[in-house]
Amino acid sequence: MFRRQMLLKLFLLTLASALTVFSMACGGEEKIVEVEKIVEVEKIVEVEKIVEKEVEKIVIATAVPGAASPGQVTLDPADLPNSKSQGGEVRVAVVSFGALGTSGGSLPDVPFGGARQLGGAESLFSPGPQNFDEMQLASDWTLASDLSSVEITIRDGVKFHSNGGDWGNVTADDMAWVINRTNPAINPESIAASAANLTALFGDTPVTASGNTITGTFNNFDVRWASNLLNQEASGGLTTFATSKKAFDEKGVAWLKTNFVGTGPMQVGEFKPGISVTMEKVPYDHWRKNASIDSITMIAVPEEATRVAMMQTGEMDVAYIAPKDMRMMASGGFMAVGAGSGTQEGIMFPGNLWESHNAVTGEALDIPSHGVYVRAQPWTGNPWTPDDDDNPAGMDDMEQARLVRQALARGVDREAINQYVVGGVGRPNHVTYFSTVNKHWDSKWEYPYDVAKANALLDEAGYPKGDDGIRFQMPLFVGPELGGGAGPAGEIGDAIAGFWQELGLDIQVLKYAYGVFRPGLVSRTTVVPMLTGCDDGNPIYPFDWPKGLVQTTLTRGGFSCGFESPEILAWYQASAKEPDQDKRVAINKEYLDYMHHWALFPGFIMVPNIHFANPNHIKEWPMNLGGSFNSPENIVLK
User: Fold this and answer.
1) Which 8-state DSSP code applies to residue 580?
2) What is the rounded CA–CA span in Å between residue 344 and residue 137?
3) Which of 220, 376, 382, 510 can pair with 397 through a Cys bridge, CB separation 3.0 to 4.6 Å?
4) Virtual CA dihedral for 591, 594, 596, 601, nearest 10 degrees?
5) DSSP, residue by residue, 259-307
6) Residue 381: helix, strand or coil by DSSP?
7) What is the average pLDDT across 73-91?
8) DSSP 8-state assignment for residue 80
9) Alpha-carbon distance 602 to 311, whole Å?
10) Which run of H or of E encompasses 62?
11) What is the distance between the alpha carbons of residues 320 and 202, in angstroms, rounded to a whole number?
């Protein structure tokens, strides 16, 4: 009964939100719009050429006028507005700025971590429409036959933006400086997004520059070094795009915190931290692409109803639309645009620190006295002191916590979340990082919805319901994906919490700023479960790519999923060095078995990364593979 009431409440809340702006429409039929990307990744290892092909379809069910289902809100395409933008302008509404705030980016001092999405920044490598590792600022590269190092030639004649001065062209010194200053093993002050991935790749050995080349010595070789880690669309927001060292030396850190000097087809026109940013077409022939628009302005608009209304009135040309409203926008003739990707929302369980040594330095870790184990939590397993005073007879702490996590993974109705929270446009997910429609997926890795089983597991773990019906308290932090707590992620978090409350947990859903939560992940001191994709929760990433880097001590000093495992470390390192695709697939299947068994990061829902554009102003927006959107220089206006 509770479940039916809760689902009805979720449905009514979704409907009420839509009705604040729109009236009911009759008629409508449903069609399926498929966004298909064929991912071809080429990597040269010694003399062997590896070509990987993964096909991932992000399927969006969209309602169009016809025979509408009961309660379906539709729009009339005849009401599609004319744009209020002038000439070559494009205006975009997003939930919040995230990396476009006042920190992050390719350096700890640069404000534009998201400039890669706005045409302002360029990296050594970049995805294209089909491949992940096309050369961008790199013009050539040579990989050592023993995989110990790589030498990369920097493209000649790439001009820096003249923001605040004449900074000349990109040099090898600039690129080596960017990578080293971002790497927290070399620069402890670096707080750039997922910067510790560079620590895993290069350790504390600086990248060096000589002439027009840079040389990196690998601490842990990773087959994704070009297709991800040194890439324009690196997972987790890691960026190594070109920034002028001369500007840094002459202007200083304070200046760089509100200014950006990049090399892309668009340059900063006006920046209001946390409010808006306008990127303008550079006033010269760009080496790669002359933008076909004059400017693009991104504005933070947290309220979904406001974003939708601004699209309906022509105030905005493009907007992020919550999943539950995607069908409605498509029914009104608005055009879906995106890079073919999606966001997997899973819940990771920090505090499960099971490695004994730092994989980068080899130093022993003082885990037994670490803060995460000072007070036992039902979802954290302690291998260092496995027998504590709350374990059931014959059960150690690791098994007790595993049963709890298994119960939580099985106690959520993923289909209901898809239907009632994200409007049926998503897809259930079970183990984060893996798509359930990938050809390698097996149903044995799923967590069937089973309330009786979940309750039995919690009872077996030694957490019966008290007289008040409560087993234990647990917080849940909503991560920054999908607009964070203020966006659809907040609604997904609330829904998951509702299912867990049905099991007898007292859940506090936390929706404060991610920047406040993140230090606990970096320091490995938090035990608060988090709703997130944790860097690689994107179904567009190939199945065989090495998994689990940020679930190991390789990224100590920087971002992590908050848990570490020696088994995950071994599988990651084996996969990262393996040139054979089929063998990497086999390794990742072992990783999948392990992750499903220990339930350290169960997935719940995959949501398409889609924006909607006004076709009365935008004819097309071709994008490369990547996150939610990119390459505004490719926009073609009507």
Assistant:
1) -
2) 30
3) 382
4) -70
5) -----SSEEEEEEETTTEEEEEE-SS--SS---SSSEEEEEE---HHHH
6) coil
7) 93
8) P
9) 36
10) strand 48-64
11) 36
Span 458-464, average pLDDT = 98
The CA-CA-CA angle for residues 228, 230, 233, to 5°, reads 50
**Nearby residues of 536 by Cβ (< 8 Å), 6 or more positions away:** 235, 236, 433, 545, 547, 550
- Of the ranges 287-291, 517-521, 623-627, which one carries the lowest mean pLDDT score? 623-627
pLDDT for the residue numbered 112: 59
Kindly indicate the confidence band of residue 625, based on its pLDDT and cuts at 50, 70 and 90.
confident
Query: Any idea what DSSP says for residue 227?
Result: I
Each residue of 603-620: pLDDT tens digit? 999 999 889 999 999 999
Rounded to two decimals, the pTM is 0.85
Residue entry with tokens 């399927």: 59
Q: Is pLDDT of 1 > 50? A: no
Torsion of CA 476, 352, 184, 366, to 10 degrees: 130
User: What residues contact residue 285 under an 8 Å CB cut-off, 6+ apart?
Assistant: none
CA distance 216 to 195: 16
In Å, what is the CA distance from 271 to each residue of 35, 102, 279, 299?
33, 10, 9, 10
Q: In sequence order, what are the residues at sequence separation of 6 or more whose Cβ sits closer than 8 angstroms to the Cβ of residue 72? A: 25, 28, 63, 327
Q: 586: Cβ–Cβ under 8 A, 6 or more apart, which residues?
A: none
The encoded tokens of residue 207 equal: 């990248």
pLDDT for 67 beyond 90: no
- Give the H or E element holding residue 606: strand 603-608
Question: What are the residues facing 215 on neighbouring strands?
Answer: 151, 208
Residue 579 amino acid letter: P
> Quick check: 310 pLDDT over 60?
yes
**What average pLDDT is seen over the chain?**
86
Query: Residue 218's pLDDT band (boundaries 50, 70, 90)?
Result: very high
Indicate the SS3 state at residue 216.
strand
pLDDT tens digits along 143-172 = 999 999 999 999 999 999 998 899 999 999
- Bridge-based pairing of strands 29-45 and 276-281 is unpaired
